[in-house]
Amino acid sequence: MAKEHILVVEDEEDILELVRYNLQKEGYRLTGVHTGEEALKTARTAFPDLILLDLMLPGVDGLEVCRTLKQDPKTQHIPIIMVSAKGEEADIVTGLELGAADYITKPFGPRVLIARVRAVLRRREATPLTESSPLTIHDLFIHPGRHEVLVQGHPVELTVTEFRLLHMLARRPGWVFTRTQIVNGVHGDDYPVSDRSVDVQIVGLRKKLGVCGEYVETVRGVGYRFKE
Known about the structure:
By secondary structure, the chain is α/β, with parallel strands linked by helices. It folds into two domains: 5-125, Rossmann fold (3-Layer(aba) Sandwich), CATH 3.40.50.2300; 135-226, Orthogonal Bundle (Arc Repressor Mutant, subunit A), CATH 1.10.10. Helices cover 41% and strands 21% of the residues. It has a five-stranded parallel sheet with strand order 2-1-3-4-5, with helices on both faces. Strands 6-7-8-9 form a four-stranded antiparallel sheet, with helices on one face. A three-stranded antiparallel sheet has the order 10-12-11. Strand 1 (5-9), helix 1 and strand 2 form a beta-alpha-beta unit. Helix 2 (36-46) runs parallel beside helix 3 (62-71), helix 3 runs parallel beside helix 4 (89-98) and helix 6 (160-170) crosses helix 8 (197-209). The protein is elongated.
């Protein structure tokens, strides 16, 4: 049975061929395009299972491609992995806030590429949890309805904010959340706090989780994620 169809958007031919070779070797079906315009056209006609999207493109850049696809009900479900050069942290944050699933920085190795693709596709296929579904991950048990958290079977007392923050991250392990996304997800849009207040909450949360605190990972320059 054929594996998933991946759309690769990359204007550098050597990188495109490297990605094509390694992903096809893993059994994935590949379509490669060089511009943002081609990416939009292909995404709207082929509906790939995943898009590997370079941010620096001629004409319509990667961020605009991401924004356009995530605003279109027909394509907003397609997961996007952004590809960026090191030092483009601001663009990475913007892309994640637009709805991208993950990112890879250049230069990258084939093993990293394949691992990221597999992880995003795995999350895409996972059965979505409802907001009230109990959740067991690693040594943690989280019950939203009871506002209950157990670490290795022992109860942990969390504030409302800490609980919402933990639940938001744990529901989507491996998914990178920016500080702005966390503030909006925990408190709602336009909540009058600094994004940096999230860092303070994370420190307190990790301390209370004890041995499980290491599952809340810092993504330098971007935000946080829950360890897969």
